[in-house]
């Protein structure tokens, strides 16, 4: 913890808890890219798959994908998994910070899902329950739909226009 580092003693003015901070979609998750049908490499890499991280990233990426977001989109998340409850807090911001929308949704990963997607935003499904993957994916999509109903689409559209190179000569 940084607050215990002697270089920071007396300099920190606040300790932020995880539920107070939002981060970029997939922040801190490590991925290995392989060919889609390379089952041998997928099998070799199987021990590297961390179920909790995978489920969080599926929810986060589904959220961003449904919002048509990307690297320069002002979209942030905080996803947690506790006692089989996956919680996704998502937010969309205007470029200048004057507008923001926050919303949180949860799903019980012990539930059954009616349908399965094949790739889950590019994440290869192996030894993780298809129900859990589908529920995580649907959580992200449902949260995005809800924020779109509240105006997130307009905020993102304006932000994307503002981030275009022709609108930012200094980039």
What features would you describe in this structure?
- With 171 residues, this protein is of the alpha+beta class.
- 32% of the residues lie in helices and 15% in strands.
- The protein has 4 helices and 3 strands; from the N terminus they run H-H-E-E-E-H-H.
- A hairpin with a 2-residue loop joins strand 1 and strand 2.
- Helix 2 runs parallel beside helix 3.
Q: What keyword list fits this structure?
A:
single chain; 171 residues; 3 strands
Secondary-structure-derived class = alpha+beta
Rg over CA atoms: 18 Å
Largest sheet: 3 strands, antiparallel
Helix percent reads: 25-40%
What pattern of helices and strands is seen along the backbone?
Answer: HHEEEHH
Number of strands: 3
* Widest β-sheet, arrangement of strands: 1-2-3
Outline type: globular
Distance between the termini: 35 Å
Query: Taking all residues together, what is the mean pLDDT?
Result: 85
What is the overall number of helices? 4
Strand content: 15-25%
Low-confidence stretches: none
Short note summarizing the structure:
32% of the residues lie in helices and 15% in strands.
List the helices and strands and how they pair.
Layout: H1 39-45, H2 51-66, E1 75-82, E2 85-93, E3 100-108, H3 130-149, H4 152-162
Antiparallel strand pairs: 1-2, 2-3
Helix pairs in contact: 2-3
